[in-house]
Amino acid sequence: MSIYDLPEFDGHEHVSFFCDAASGLRAIIAIHSTAPYGLSGGGCRMQPYADATEAARDALRLSRAMSYKLALTDMPAGGAKTVVIGDPRRDKSETLLRALGAAVERLNGRYIIAEDVGTTPEDMRIIGQVTRYVSGKQQDTGPTTAHGVFTGLRVAVARHLGRSDLKGTRVAVQGLGAVGSRLCDELIAAGATLWVADIDPSAVERVCARHPGVTPLPNEAILAADVDVLAPCALGGILDDRTIGALRCKVVCGAANNQLAEERHAEALAARGILYAPDFVVNAGGVIGAAFDSGDGDTTQASAALRETERVGDLLGTVMARAEQDGVTPYAAAVAMAQDKVRQRRAQQPQP
Ligand code: NAD
Fold first, then answer.
1. Is 341 an active-site residue?
2. For residue 265, what is the enclosing H or E element?
3. What pTM was estimated for this model as a whole?
4. Interval between CA 230 and ligand 1 midpoint (Å)
5. Which end of the chain is more exposed for a tag (fewer CB within 10 A), N or C?
6. Four-residue CA torsion sign, 286, 292, 295, 299
7. Model confidence over 255-298: pLDDT tens digits?
8. Minimal CA–CA distance to 68: which of 58, 78, 59, 76?
9. Does the Cβ of 116 fall within 6 Å of ligand 1?
10. CA–CA separation, 254 vs 344, rounded Å?
């Protein structure tokens, strides 16, 4: 099967494969769309993919979701994504990051790179020595993404469970990194009761030390925890035939990108009466917040960014209303709304 035939390809505008023997860099930059701004943005994920095909599929899937997210939130850029093949703990070096910066530079500003799983604001600072097409040099997008997920979760609980606040709401959080740990802080402040898990025991210890009432669970048990809400904040692909059958929550609302193993799993969740809040809607706080990143750590801007991410809750409300009106899942409604917007953006693109 050629890359054009992959279901994730979905009309991608540009896909580049980069290789730098000296630093060991193997990276794919997928640009779903730049229309009509001539510009795209998306994070850089580094992980030990089994092979280049798996990496390419992930890049395409993540890049398309990024386009949907940016279009739905009316941000003036299309979606893209970088994936770097390698273990960030073992294979990441300053030389590799500089080679990646050179790759981004070669795209002449059509793509702005940012952090994602496996990369950090410090990595972006190093990349920024080689190219100016980088976002998130100072500002960690964890807080804005977490605040967006929190506002989405509040709306999901209000509409699906009929509760006006989160007091006593039982939430299981998988993944306690930049987003998940902040989400825990906000949920605890709102009176929720939490169960948490992470493959990194030190991440669990940190959250439990801050919030003594939080209960740690083994990672294998977190998805099937007996809770109201499951908040996946680690990696994607976790909702499949096996895990959906075992879920005991009523709402899934979390930051992880591409939580559904396949699109049909949105129907499987709805058939079990579980509300799935589309990931690319509820995790949009990061892109909304990134627009406020002046690169100089201005804290006034940081609080303005947090306030602006509350748009995520409103957007989820609109998506849920459209889903009810059209008799489809919120996921299908969000995809349809996003595709309409991407089509409109492409129609405004000047022809060469
Ligand atoms: P992070 O790397 O800071 O944290 C991820 C956490 O998940 C880590 O603590 C890691 O140990 C844990 N983890 C990894 N694999 C796991 C597994 N199989 N089971 C349990 N825990 C596991 O990443 P983050 O920035 O917090 O992002 C979390 C998710 O949200 C990712 O899917 C990311 O793509 C998505 N997201 C993040 C942002 C952002 O602004 N950071 C924006 C949009 C979406």
1. no
2. helix 265-271
3. 0.91
4. 15
5. C
6. negative
7. 999 999 999 999 999 999 999 999 999 999 988 987 776 656 56
8. 78
9. yes
10. 28
